[in-house]
């Protein structure tokens, strides 16, 4: 039976296989093109599929890097934080701690957690009693 697997980025043109990848809408303008074409340099379908995998990864990396560039994630890290930035980071972390604490209170101690905490308290109290 004939292999009917479809490779969406594989295109046959003038008896040569090509990669034809549509550029996602969010990066189309910055890349300046609607599609990326790349000759796979072969007329053999099996070789084309193997080369397609390699070239597809390279194209996906281009998309990934462009999205990072647009998001400003390729910028070098800041040397210093301003007082306002430090306060924002602290506020976010404090809110995270409050959320964790609330989750713990709402779920309560369960089975092994309670036994483990009780065991730790016994060990700590014995250690403190030995000091007296």
If you average the pLDDT, what whole number results? Answer: 88
Residue stretches low in confidence (pLDDT < 50, at least 5 long) are: none
Q: State the end-to-end CA separation.
A: 84 Å
Number of helices: 4
SSE order, one letter for each helix or strand: EEHEHHH
Count all strands and give the number: 3
Using only C-alpha atoms, the radius of gyration works out to: 29 Å
Oligomer: single chain
| Order of adjacent strands in the largest pleated sheet | 1-2-3
The helix-and-strand class reads alpha+beta
The percent range for helix content is 55-70%
Could you describe the largest sheet, including whether it forms a barrel?
A: 3 strands, antiparallel
User: What is the global morphology?
Assistant: elongated
Proportion of residues in β-strands: 5-15%
**Please, how many domains?**
2
Task: Tell me what the structure shows.
By secondary structure, the protein is α+β, with helices and mostly antiparallel strands. The protein has two domains: 10-74, no CATH class; 83-130, no CATH class. It is built from four helices and three strands. The protein has helices at 25-31, 45-71, 83-107, 111-131; strands at 10-13, 16-22, 35-39. A three-stranded antiparallel beta sheet has the order 1-2-3, with helices on one face. A hairpin with a 2-residue loop joins β1 (10-13) and β2. The longest helix has 27 residues, at 45-71. The N and C termini lie far apart (84 Å). The relative contact order is 0.08.
């Amino acid at each position: 039976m004939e292999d009917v697997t479809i490779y969406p980025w594989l295109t046959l043109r003038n008896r040569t296989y090509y990669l034809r990848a549509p550029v996602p809408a969010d990066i189309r303008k910055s890349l300046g093109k609607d599609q990326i074409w790349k000759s796979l340099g072969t007329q053999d379908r099996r070789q084309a599929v193997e080369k397609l995998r390699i070239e597809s990864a390279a194209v996906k990396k281009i998309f990934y890097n462009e999205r990072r560039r647009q998001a400003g994630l390729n910028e070098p890290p800041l040397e210093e934080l301003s007082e306002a930035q430090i306060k924002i980071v602290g506020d976010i972390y404090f809110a995270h701690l409050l959320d964790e604490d609330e989750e713990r209170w709402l779920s309560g101690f369960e089975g092994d957690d309670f036994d483990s905490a009780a065991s730790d308290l016994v060990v700590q109290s014995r250690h403190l009693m030995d000091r007296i």
